[in-house]
From TrEMBL:
Species lineage: Eukaryota, Metazoa, Spiralia, Lophotrochozoa, Mollusca
Keyword Transmembrane: yes
Source organism of this protein record: Pomacea canaliculata (Golden apple snail)
Essential cofactor(s): heme b; FAD
Family per similarity comment: Belongs to the STEAP family.
Name of this chain's protein: Pyrroline-5-carboxylate reductase catalytic N-terminal domain-containing protein
């Protein structure tokens, strides 16, 4: 009997909590508050919007709530009544108003409640975070940081652009679970981001503008400036090419050289990391910062290379005529015999101009390279990557990636090799086509070296945790016994290896220092395109 009464009380308490959770309060009546109130009402929640002046905000709230059917499901009350009715309260206020809003009386009534901070800062690098500030003002509440990565437009419209991932951070595990459930009910993906200390990073991430593209943009800018200066000097300052041909003819060569160079740099990063691991004899030594940043930028660098390759292909199609690329077409011997006493016009048909075999081969491998680059770019999209297993992803990004680089390099060889042989040294050193082929050829040669069984087996042993013993360590009899435990400890803080950072063609399987060692055993030998 006692057990029955106890279970009855527990079930009753659980139902009461569920009913209480379905009631959500919102502090504030701004655009974000109105948008999330509508979203909550559509999801079946009982919404209470609180304001310090509810009578003044009643008309504003009614005009903001577009659907008249939802106006009855959204109640506008005072702050005190909202805190009394709801266990989960969304704080839709600017952080500047936290201090004046949460007076000691309000803080006392908010004790034990789940306060969801959705605010963001206007400047970077400010400490503490808004969530920490709110937690200090209301020490008895369970403060959770969430929904700050969403905009009011995303809440109001399914077609609006912007992130739909809700990151949840809070010190109370049960409060995080409640907020995650709330986010999923609203139709968003949810990700737990740890304790309230992570709130600062969530607020900081909203203010950053493409941070992962900075290194790639700098590299691409340097490459573009170098080849543009080289082409201008070679074609216009030293050569006889007219400046009127600079926008299309000259820049077409520049974009082609930039695409091939950036593609080679994308793969070279992983190869350098592999040789560095061979030199160190271990995978547990962190890469230098410059190499770590390079590894992280491979995806973006590959995308930039793909974009420039597309521009190069379009411009080449526009210039495809004997007038611009005379060497691509077979010369036609024209013989005209004028009859004696001919007084009329003689019409000669010059429209038949056939391309040479090396020109057609160059176009073929160039088109194939562009198609493969597009495939690699598509498979790097998050929505596509999710449905691929590791073997499929590695085959596309690593196997097809190097095939694509080889085809792109062969495109230039087929087009210009006969010219280099005819010109000879040192003339070819001043030609853009020859200088731009050096780096990708070197990358392919290094890749072939890493594929040799003796080298590849050595790299795989290192990536599986084997370490090369030095003379000092081999003389220590205790070193062998300690090696296993040392490796397991170092594995927890290891930096970089394995999966090649999802970029447009990245060399031998290596990731940056930020990747976890837990994936090392699964990601041996991949490169990535985008």
């Amino acid at each position: 009997m006692i057990l029955f009464l106890f279970l009855k009380q527990e079930v009753g308490a659980t139902k009461a909590n569920e009913v209480n959770v379905r009631k959500v309060g919102i502090l504030g009546t701004g655009n974000f508050a109105s948008a999330i109130a509508q979203r909550l009402a559509l999801a079946g929640y009982d919404v209470t919007v609180a304001s310090r002046r509810p009578e003044d905000r009643k008309l504003t709230l009614r005009s903001d709530v577009c659907l008249s059917s939802l106006q009855s499901a959204i109640h506008l009350t005072s702050v005190s009544e909202c805190l009394e009715r709801c266990h989960v309260v969304i704080v839709a206020l600017h952080h500047e108003h936290f201090t004046s809003f949460f007076t000691p009386e309000v803080a006392q009534k908010a004790a034990g409640k789940i306060l969801v901070d959705v605010s963001n800062r206007s400047t970077r690098g400010v400490q503490p975070s808004n969530a920490k500030l709110l937690s200090s003002l209301v020490p008895g509440a369970h403060v959770v940081k969430a929904f700050n990565t969403l905009s009011a437009y995303v809440l109001e419209s399914e077609t609006a652009g912007g992130s739909r991932m809700v990151c949840v951070a809070g010190d109370d595990a049960e409060a995080r679970v409640v907020v995650c459930s709330l986010a999923r009910d609203l139709g968003f993906e949810c990700q737990e981001s740890g304790g309230l200390e992570s709130a600062w990073q969530l607020e900081e991430s909203v203010l950053t503008v493409f941070p992962e593209w900075r290194v790639a943009a700098v590299i691409a800018g340097i490459v573009l400036a170098f080849w543009a200066l080289f082409a201008i000097t070679r074609e216009h300052l030293v050569g006889t090419t007219s400046w009127s041909q600079f926008p299309v003819k000259t820049m077409n060569k520049v974009f082609g050289a930039c695409a091939l160079t950036e593609l080679a740099l994308t793969y070279l990063a992983g190869t350098c990391a592999a040789f560095l691991q061979i030199y160190n004899g271990t995978k547990h030594k962190r890469f230098p910062r410059w190499l770590d940043a390079w590894l992280k930028a491979r995806k973006q660098l590959g995308l930039l290379a793909f974009g420039q390759a597309v521009v190069h292909a379009i411009l080449s199609a526009l210039l495809l005529s004997p007038t611009y690329v005379k060497s691509w077409y077979a010369p036609d011997a024209l013989r005209v015999i004028v009859p004696v006493n001919q007084t009329g016009d003689i019409v000669v048909d010059l429209s038949k101009a056939w391309m040479t075999w090396n020109s057609e081969l160059s176009l073929l491998v160039g088109v194939l390279a562009i198609v493969l680059m597009g495939m690699l770019a598509v498979t790097s999209l998050p929505s596509v990557t999710r449905i691929m297993n590791w073997a499929e992803w590695r085959f596309v990004q690593s196997g097809l990636g190097y095939v694509m680089l080889t085809l792109a390099t062969s495109h230039l060889y087929a087009m210009s090799l006969h010219k280099w042989v005819r010109a000879g040294l040192p003339i070819i050193l001043f030609r853009l086509s020859f200088m731009s082929i050096v780096l990708p050829t070197t990358v392919i040669a290094l890749r072939i070296i890493t594929l040799l069984p003796c080298v590849d087996n050595y790299i795989q042993r290192i990536r599986r945790g084997w370490e090369r013993k030095t003379l000092s360590s081999s003389s220590d009899p205790a070193h062998g016994a300690e090696n296993g435990s040392t490796s397991s400890k170092q594995a927890a803080r290891t930096s970089a290896e394995v999966k090649s950072g999802a970029s447009l063609g990245t060399g031998p399987t290596v990731v940056s220092n930020s990747e976890t060692e837990a994936r090392n055993s699964q990601t041996v030998g991949a490169e990535t395109l985008v």
